[in-house]
UniProtKB/TrEMBL annotation:
Coiled-coil ranges from the UniProt annotation: 389-416, 518-566
PROSITE patterns: ENTH, I_LWEQ
GO cellular component assignments: clathrin-coated vesicle; cortical actin cytoskeleton
GO molecular function terms listed in the Swiss-Prot or TrEMBL record: actin filament binding; clathrin adaptor activity; clathrin light chain binding; phosphatidylinositol-3,4-bisphosphate binding; phosphatidylinositol-3,5-bisphosphate binding
A matching Pfam family: I_LWEQ
Alphabetical list of Gene3D superfamilies matching this protein: 1.20.5.1700, 1.25.40.90, I/LWEQ domain
Chief subcellular location: cytoplasm
Organism taxonomic ancestry: Eukaryota, Metazoa, Ecdysozoa, Arthropoda, Crustacea
Family, as annotated: Belongs to the SLA2 family.
Protein name in the entry: Huntingtin interacting protein 1
UniProt entry tagged with the keyword Coiled coil: yes
Amino acid sequence: MTSIKKIPNVLGTRRGNALDQERDQFEKLQEASYRKAVSDEEVPIKMKHVRTLIIGTYTDKNAELFWRNVALCPPINTDVMAWKFCHCLHVVFRDGHPSVLRDSQRHLARIHDTGQHFQHLAHGYGRLIKRYCILLSTKLNFHQHHPRFPGTLSVTPDQLEAFAENDANNYFGLAVEMLEYMECILNLYEAVFGSMDPSRANSMTRSGQCRLAPLIPCIQDSSCLYDCIVRILFQLHKVPSKSNPTMASLPTDMLGGHRNRFYKQFVQLQQFYNNTRNLQYFKGLIQVPALPKDPPNFLVEAELRSHETPVVVVEEPPDTADTSDTLLIDTSEPEPPPIPPHPHLIHDHNGALAEVVAERESLIDALRLEVEGLRVDVTQTRSRAAHMEDQLRLRINDLESTIAELDSELVAEKQSKDSIMAQVEAAAASAEAVTHLAQEETRRRSAEEKFVKMKDVYQKLREEHIGLIRSKAELDKMLTVERESNLAIQRAKEEASLTLSQLKAQASADSSANLTALLAANQERDKVQEQLAVITAERDHADKQMDALQSTISQLKSQMENQACESSAQLTSVKTEWMGWVETCVAAVAENAETGVVQTLTLFSEETHKDIKCTPEFTLTYQTPVKTSLSPLVGAYATYREGDPQKAGDLIKAVVGAGQNVSAFLLYAKATSHASPNIEVAENLVSSLEEFGRSCASTFRRIYQKETITDIAPLLEQFDRCCTLVMQCEDLSPGEEDLSTQVQREMANMEAAIIEASQRFMAMLENSRAMDTGTQLEVNESLLGTCGDLMEAVRQLVLRAGELQQEVVTAGKSGASPREFYKRNHRWTEGLLSGAKMVALACQALMAAADQVVVGTGKFEEVMVASREMAASSMQLVMASRVKADRGSEKLKQLSSAHKNLSALTGTLVATAENCRDKVAIADKLDFSKLSLHHTKRMEMETQVKVLETEQLLVTERARLAELRRHHYRLAGEIEGLDDPTSVEAGSSDFLDQS
């Protein structure tokens, strides 16, 4: 294959030398930018040097040249150089070429050695450099494990999900690494702020800014990490769904460490942002995001929708002007002019003293007026110069952005040139490649010429800007001179008044002294005239400069007028187009409202709509919305037609609301007529509705046809008539007792039964205390006391069930009455009634069993059975109440707590009954001391026979109990109208067997 060195027959040798020179110049520029960026001067790093290094990484597509410069100028020379090197490296990692992170992996040892070199430095930047090197090492390790993350860490939720591959294990490990990354950032922040004085007074000094500058990329990294950590933790706490079955959820206890660590870092990060936001240094460089007041609750999945991604806006820091520019502006303070002596008192030695005073006052007034005029002119000139300076600064910014674009184009051209050179090396013998290379070289030269032209234009504007700054400085000096002259004149006036009083005294005392004073006054007048001549010459010079500035201002003003004319023409065309769109929108909305009303009227004749019924109460809920939406329609339309397009929004809002509310009212009113017992009222309602609908459609048609609407009162009268007929459709005929009344009655009976049982237990306990003693009193007190506590628990359960029932009815009415709600949910209502009846019966059964045990005719087993029946009936009441309740309802939680307390007391009552039975059995135990061996053996055998008979009887009775329960639930299912009583029977039997 032919080498590239054999091509010079076509291209010549000068091109290769030019490329080498360009590369040498590029490498020198990179080395100079690096040395300036990490200089030993304790000032913040200049971002223009870092940007040059970043452009270098994109030019070479690697970080080899950057690390070569690091080796030439090692950062371990001084602590300031090492600190600025860490800041520079952090920015290059974030904004440099993607291959920078990969190429920097083998330089981890250099970063680690830099931190180890300064970790023992007790003062200066030693501890800060150690923390920063740990942060940079952590960043490199993170990107090595997760190379798909960009250096800026800015990813979308979809990208984050793709990086983790929707795997809980990947999310778990990624969260651990991000939390460690965030901890390194917060450690660096605490070290930086800990090294400054508590008042932060040195945040505006160069040394303080040098310490604070690296926190800007830390804020950028921490905001992205915070967003990713929040989304990852929500994903880990998310419950698997049908749409995402592959995502396995982790136990909440396993994620407790993640949550605690995040909540701790949340407080530190919030303090970090608040402290940096309050510093004056950061206000012009970065907009620090604001975190929410409270951290997100990962156990509530809905809070992910309220999460907002923190946005960090970094503004370009102003680069300090070069020394050569500042030397062109004369900022030296002018020497103040000497205080002029007071003028002569008289023109003629023979004049009077009053004439001297009058002449002096007139001269002072003239000078004051002239100074005031000059001050006004200088102020106007300064304002014009400031405005012109702002305009030129905006234009310079535009040109700088254009130059940046051209720079990027130039870099792209250089990259294409490099690729073409590689193609030339691959195909050196091809003439087409040579031609293509020549075309690319021509294109590159044109781009360079364009860049040079733009650079010249920028240089000219810069020079004009500098000239204006000089003019402004000269005007400031002139204003200072005039202000000092005015002060001098004021002082001269005061001295003249003092001298005048002294001369009056001298004139009255000695005429010879007056003559000497007059001669001195003549001399002073001559000096004042000389001063006035100097001031006049300076004023003429200022007038010439002002004329030059006015000519420049007039040129700029003409340019601004031309631009204003063009902008007004564009504004007129846009306004015309906007007016057309507004009219189109109004017409479309009105036509849509008319179409909706007409389509609603067509549904009146549909057969399928005749089966729909609605209550008058629900239909009349639309009475207020319809009136509220129809009333402002005429006013909004009149305002719109008067030529105020800004009010089109009010008209559109009124038309849309009126169309929707009228259509809904017509549908529900028609459905109400189907349920009316009076056919004549229903027919009148339908005809009134059709008339009202046609009137509304006609009103909407007038709006989009731009016709006049005079009054809306007839339309409102038709609507009131329709509402009156809707109220007459209510079925007032007497009927059987509704389910609502039954529920209230059964709940009242249940509460009365509970109260009666509680009072009966208290009465039996008092009676037992008065009549019984010994073991019987102890047994009665224990049993009746436990029964009383159980009745109190049942009463609390009933109260909570009633509150939950009221909440369910209130939340589920949807505009209907309670009677309609119970009727619509009749199965749930019947279950609720059955549960209430069962609780009342269980209370009575428990009361009867306890009464018999106390009297001595009952068995403790009856009390146990009654208590278990109480638990089963209360469970039925709880389940019936829970069916319609909201899962997050506070009333439901209170009901569940009351049921748990009832279940615990039921177990306590069963245990108490067994204990009491054992006590009674022990008390009634026989005395076997007088029995012989034969009698003892015979009684033992009889007892074993009774045990076997009792066991067989127990098995038989249990089977009978199971059959009775099955029959009971089969009958309950048939009464309540359940579709599948067999399944209810089986489920209920299993539940009761378990209980």
